[in-house]
């Protein structure tokens, strides 16, 4: 009886571990951040996006079919930290390597006051 119960619990735990998506687990990384102007367009998460919104478009390596829509991301650059909300997909971010992000113009300006001249910056980010 004990071995049957133990076996059932073990198999349930193993199945849960195997089925958990690695992209949904806590993730942190260094990556290249650029910025874009959503200009009121509809993002990949289905919402209208404005330039001043504190939003982020995830690269295809992190997108996970939109599973992170609405999730908060902490982004750090040279001692400054902001929080942004996942609202879009950045298909071009893959060309900048793993963990690339695209921040809205407003979020990038808050993170890097010299963003117009810097263009792209190296950041550290994690899901909150």
UniProtKB/TrEMBL annotation:
<dbReference type="InterPro" id="IPR036908">
    <property type="entry name" value="RlpA-like_sf"/>
</dbReference>
<protein>
    <recommendedName>
        <fullName>RlpA-like protein double-psi beta-barrel domain-containing protein</fullName>
    </recommendedName>
</protein>
<dbReference type="InterPro" id="IPR009009">
    <property type="entry name" value="RlpA-like_DPBB"/>
</dbReference>
<feature type="domain" description="RlpA-like protein double-psi beta-barrel">
    <location>
        <begin position="30"/>
        <end position="124"/>
    </location>
</feature>
<feature type="signal peptide">
    <location>
        <begin position="1"/>
        <end position="20"/>
    </location>
</feature>
<dbReference type="Pfam" id="PF03330">
    <property type="entry name" value="DPBB_1"/>
</dbReference>
<keyword id="KW-0732">Signal</keyword>
<dbReference type="InterPro" id="IPR051477">
    <property type="entry name" value="Expansin_CellWall"/>
</dbReference>
């Amino acid at each position: 009886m004990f071995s049957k119960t133990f076996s059932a619990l073990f198999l349930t735990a193993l199945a849960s571990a195997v089925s958990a998506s690695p992209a949904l687990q806590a993730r942190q990384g260094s990556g290249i951040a650029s910025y874009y102007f959503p200009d009121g367009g509809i993002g990949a998460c289905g919402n209208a996006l404005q330039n001043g919104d504190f939003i982020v478009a995830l690269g295809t390596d992190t997108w996970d079919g939109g599973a992170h829509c609405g999730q908060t991301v902490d982004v750090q650059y040279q001692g400054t930290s902001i929080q942004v909300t996942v609202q879009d997909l950045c298909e071009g971010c893959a060309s900048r390597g793993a963990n690339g992000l695209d921040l809205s113009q407003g979020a990038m300006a808050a993170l890097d006051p010299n963003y117009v001249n810097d263009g792209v910056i190296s950041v550290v980010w994690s899901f909150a």
